Amino acid sequence: MLQFYWALGRDIVKMHVEERWGEKVISTLAHDLKNLLPEATGLSRSNLYYIKKFYLLYSEIVQQPVGHDSTHHNSQQENLGQMLFSVPWGHHVVIMDKCQGDIPKAIFYLNKIVEEGWSRSVLLNMIDSQLHLRQGHAVTNFVSTLPDPQSDLARETLRDPYCFDFTQLREPYNERSLKDALIKNVEKFLLELGTGFAYMGREFRLEVGNTELFADMLFYNTTLHCYVVIEVKTTELTSSHIGQLGGYVVAVDRQLCRPGDNKTIGLLICKTQDRILAQYALESSSQPLAVSEYELERFYPQRIEGIIPSVEELERHLEEKTRHHD
What we know:
alpha/beta; 326 residues; 7-stranded mixed sheet
């Protein structure tokens, strides 16, 4: 079906049908196609415009769909072609509506759909939270503490900021409330963390000498093949947070890692951070660590007075307009 849509969109564009026969030709075409292919779906006038947009969005990169002779196409074109025809049409419609012709943005989300199997609702949420601007933006010391290519892969796995709007927490809240909300919504938390994260436990006990340490949360990432220790702080980043996290990472490396596991990574998610201070603090550690912020209220501002008119204000405005017209 997608290959048919691609070919149809290509013909509409290359034959300049609207320029030659006017805008109503799309409605006529939809009617004729329905008569010619009564069993086919997706041939409405509105969908034909999406089919045209589908071809226009990707045609500069993919000249022919999968199944055609691609001997003269480079691997990037072939990979994109395979990806295009692996994504459901409903997802394509969302991307076309939301990305507005931004090809790199569209390709980013196509990749994510293929990699992570997102539903349409998840795709909408990730686009609305601007994942393409958050992915790979955490402050890290991975270049100096992890070998290539693991350092690049680990950096691209992390995000900054993390969107914890699903917790629906409002001020005031404390650290325990936030951690409770994250674990209560662990499925959404894992989705926000990204590909390959498996939850191993909360307040994970680590015995070091005669001392018990409790890491906030422990995960294993099946893509990176390593443990990931996550500490959540409801305050601004401090250097002591980095030292604490580094100690947990060393303990997990020594006590839990098995042959085949890569070095454990530590991720500190805090309310705010000074990125320069974060970089300095990370450079002082020999462990692979990263720092990100979190957001709770991207979609749920606590106070909206003065931003959205109240019902009373709307009624008063309507009454005034009615009296003015009378």
